[in-house]
Amino acid sequence: MNKQPLLIVDDLHTSFxxxxxxxxxxxxxxxxxxxxxxxxxxxxSGSGKSVTAYSIMQILxxxxxxxGGSIKFEEKEMLNIPHRQLxxxxxxxxxxxxQDSMSSLNPVWSIGNQLREVIKVxxxxxxxxxxxNKVVEARNKLKNKAGDPKILKEELRKAKKNYDDxxxxxxxxxxxxxxxxxxxxxxxxxxxxxxxxMLQRIMIAMALIxxxxxxxxxxxxxxxxxxxxxxxxxxxxxIQKKMxxxxxxxxxxxxxxxxxxxxxxVMYAGRIVETGTVRDIFYNPQHEYTKGLLNxxxxxxxxxxxxxxxxxxxxxxxRLPSGCSFAPRCAKCMAVCLKKYPEHYPVDEKGVHxxxxxxxxxxxxxxxxxxxxxxxxxxxxxxEGNKAFKKISRLDVYxxxxxxxxxxxxxxxxxxxxxxxxxxxxxxxxxxxxxLNYYRAKRDLAIAKKSYRDGxxxxxxxxxxxxxxxxxxxxxxxxxxxxxxxxxxxLDEYLDNLVICTSPVNYDxxxxxxxxxxxxxxxxxxxxLTTKYDSLLSKVEALNHLDELKQSYDQGVIDLxxxxxxxxxxxxxxxxxxxxxxxxxxxxxxxxV
Length: 593
Ligand code: SF4
Hints:
Elements lengths: L4 E14 L2 E14 L3 E5 L6 H9 L6 E10 L2 E2 L5 H7 L4 E4 L3 H4 L6 H11 L4 H18 L5 H29 L5 H5 L8 H13 L5 E5 L7 H18 L2 E6 L2 H7 L2 E6 L2 E7 H6 L4 H8 L49 E2 L7 E2 L2 H9 L5 H9 L2 H11 L7 H12 L8 H33 L3 H4 L3 H21 L3 H15 L8 H22 L5 H18 L4 H26 L8
Parallel strand pairs: 3-8, 3-9, 6-7, 7-8
Antiparallel strand pairs: 1-2, 1-4, 4-5, 9-10, 10-12, 11-12
Bound molecules: iron/sulfur cluster (SF4).
The site of iron/sulfur cluster (SF4) has 14 residues, from helix 13.
């Protein structure tokens, strides 16, 4: 196999600035593609596979833009080169096959015209240039009056005709190469007259017509049934062998990867999390996400009743976690994973197989394959990430109080009541992460409701019911994680405190007793929050500042800004608790709680 690197992508960053924030779709992606090699990029929807391809081709739609890194094709930097030079590479040397052939072809142009158009745009391609030069030569002769004009005109006409014949022959040759029957007839037909598999073949023919050195196939077989899929993949491989090309195959289908790829890059949340040969990835996966992907596909030799999906939801691209992006869904997450993104660690001696997972390092440590110092060095480098983590974890999750009682049931299903402090931290982190999703879903719901009201729901294209479901889902997720983060005693104590407020207030009891209960509740909540959940709830800040505020009052110095802020926070706490109380006891608005 020829190992000359065709393409080197190094630390590529692509971002989309949209009104709701910045989306880092590609976040430091690096890989190489050699001639005669098929490299797969695999990952779930939204992991940044296609954006990586479009970044390489520089066909990103606005507001997408490459904000960092380098893309070298045959050692020549492709980023920031003049458009003319880029055009020479794009299409001629590097071509792309898009996933949706029906919408990628022009419905009102015949297939022949669309193929001819590609040649005309790229007449400088080596395979076409020689023929085209004959036309240019004849035209120049006529222009320079280098002979009898009649003869020169005739020569030009012949050269043009030869060139047109050459283009037609090239189109027919390509259609035959990709296995289209009766190519002469097919050239005159329009896209709607072709099946999905045939259209995909036409797309491959268009990509190959200038004999590129590298082909990027973006989900080339997604819309096709398995038999056609196998034919298309076989076709791509046979053409690759004939033309000695490099191929990048982008797919979410591990079957396609196993069938055609030499090397694989597994992507998650805009990053490559594991890379290796097909054998490495399928027989010795090291990243928890890769393991999850492999567990979720059926195996011929293992009988299972139910396939195992990867738990949780894809990461919120607007708010990537400060540590490992897969942490909220990872069953083996450790505290260190929440603080810093893992680097790529070599799994084999040559460094072909690498993984970005702390668990791999931890396992090596447990098996005494690396020294404690080496691991401590990684942990020490997490200090910076720590700061960002705290910032997120102080976000307001007080609303989750409402869900605590629901969560008790979820909690009781957790057998281990003695959860380690590390696990608690992970649960808190997940609760926070879910909380962010929850707020986002709530915002979407508000937009959906408004658009329904204004009668322009199609503009937002948000399904209100869907968003409702999302909101409810995230709420329960938050609650269950928060609950799991407590020991049983902590949960009971907490719920007891909550019950003081939410249990029916007997009208027989005196006002003083109600007052005493309320006071006990507030004291309990404050004590509980300040002593046990200080890193989780921002209300603690409010309550702590309340103390400071009281002291400031006593000392006669007060910052009005804080007073306003704390009052707002306290009013919000009170309002949400009052709401639960009123709902539970069906008390009228006028009653004093
Ligand atoms: S780094 Fe940690 S959270 Fe990320 S996949 Fe590995 S074990 Fe899971």
